[in-house]
Amino acid sequence: MTEHELVVIGGGPAGLAAALAAWEQGVRDILILERDNQAGGILNQCIHNGFGLHRFREELTGPEYAGRFIDLLRNTDIQIRTDTMVLDLTRDRVLHTVSPQHGCEAIQAGAVVLAMGCRERTRGAISIPGARCSGIFTAGAAQRFLNMEGYMVGKRVVILGSGDIGLIMARRMTLEGAKVLACVELMPYSGGLTRNIVQCLNDFDIPLYLSHTVTDIRGKDRLEQVVVSRVDENRRPIPGTEMVFDCDTLMLSVGLLPENELSRQAGIEIDPRTNGPVVWENRETDLPGVFACGNVLHVHDLVDYVSAESEQAGIAAAAYLHGNRPEGGEIRLVNGNGVSYTVPQRLHRGAESLELFFRVRNVYRDAAIRVLDGEAQVARFRREHMAPGEMESIKLPKVLLDRVKGDTLTVEIEPVGGGVLRSEASPLGDAPNV
């Protein structure tokens, strides 16, 4: 068994930022374990620009953004071990790994940062009926095939789901010469950022059909057609609204799931709302010395936010190793009206400040975010627009946190002016075949 002060599981943007932050705090024995053959994570296949606007105040591609952090690592003694799969994490912070270079190995860590990222929902996860033919990809898999392996996955494409990866792939496939027939979304609103809807769909005249879903897949060897139906308010297909698209490719952009098998094996408490670990404000889990950050904790919109959050985890891991651990009672953070989840879920009483991340359940215009200590209002923030596809954040300074008397803080949405916007599904017309 080998020993290291800090082990970071995952060499993507979260793991790199956490390791660098811990190094800057004086931790000198840091090991990053990455299962791919190079560091950078999902950024390596995201060759489009738009990264780094918050972090670096300039527009970068995904590989360029990752490269900034990898260059910083070269000025340190942080070890990056690629082609290494972590098989198990025990409650004593022992990691069992396997790799071509070192075979099976056990590593004792003084502290661990979980930065494994997330994975895509597949066809099986959402139970689309129909033929089991080729030509069906998750959007991320298609992105890797196209951008890293050099394979064109199809010529006539339908995209199910309006997550950011699906929107970006609609543009990417169009630029490569494919015809993207439609982007189909089950919900009455898009799940992606507004800027991606504009730049990836509207700019290329790709229709977005809200309150629709794929109800059948047709094809023998290769996909030939998909059937799309409108859904009612209970998300059930409406008979008689079927539309048939002649296509050879179906891309699925139907959500991301934090990659938490290791967390569950270690007995770490998982929040069913985020599918990520329950954490304190310093991103420590209920297992002392184990921290979580990035998309393994909750799915982020922007990699800039992943980096900022992961630096907090790295700083907290360094503090843990140096014996500086937060004290004080527990304040639980709960979601109220209109809020899907909150991160963190726990707060140490006496904390210096709190940056709270959450997502709303509906599309709101001219609404307010309220933070309540029982019936008492601790803070209130106005927002002109909020949507489920865009993560919200608020900051509570110590002066407000010190006023909290109860053991829970509730975050809720208060419609003020426009209230909830109920988006209507866009019409397709009467043409049965597209």
How is this fold's topology laid out?
Blueprint: E1 2-9, H1 13-24, E2 30-33, H2 62-73, E3 79-81, E4 85-89, E5 94-99, E6 103-114, E7 118-120, H3 123-126, E8 136-138, H4 139-149, E9 156-160, H5 164-175, E10 179-184, H6 194-201, E11 208-209, E12 212-219, E13 223-230, E14 243-246, E15 249-252, E16 256-258, H7 261-265, E17 270-271, E18 276-277, E19 290-292, H8 303-321, E20 330-335, E21 339-343, E22 346-348, E23 353-360, E24 363-373, E25 376-386, E26 392-397, H9 398-401, E27 408-421
Parallel strand pairs: 1-2, 1-6, 2-3, 6-19, 8-15, 9-10, 9-15, 10-11, 20-27
Antiparallel strand pairs: 4-5, 5-6, 7-16, 12-13, 13-14, 17-18, 20-22, 21-23, 23-26, 24-25, 24-27
Helix pairs in contact: 1-2, 1-8, 4-5, 5-6
Instruction: Give the C-level CATH assignment of the largest domain.
Output: Alpha Beta
Amino- and carboxy-terminal Cα gap: 61 Å
Q: Flag low-confidence runs.
A: 423-434
Count of β-strands: 27
Gross morphology is globular
Average pLDDT number: 93
The largest sheet, given as strand count, sense and whether it forms a barrel, is:
7 strands, mixed
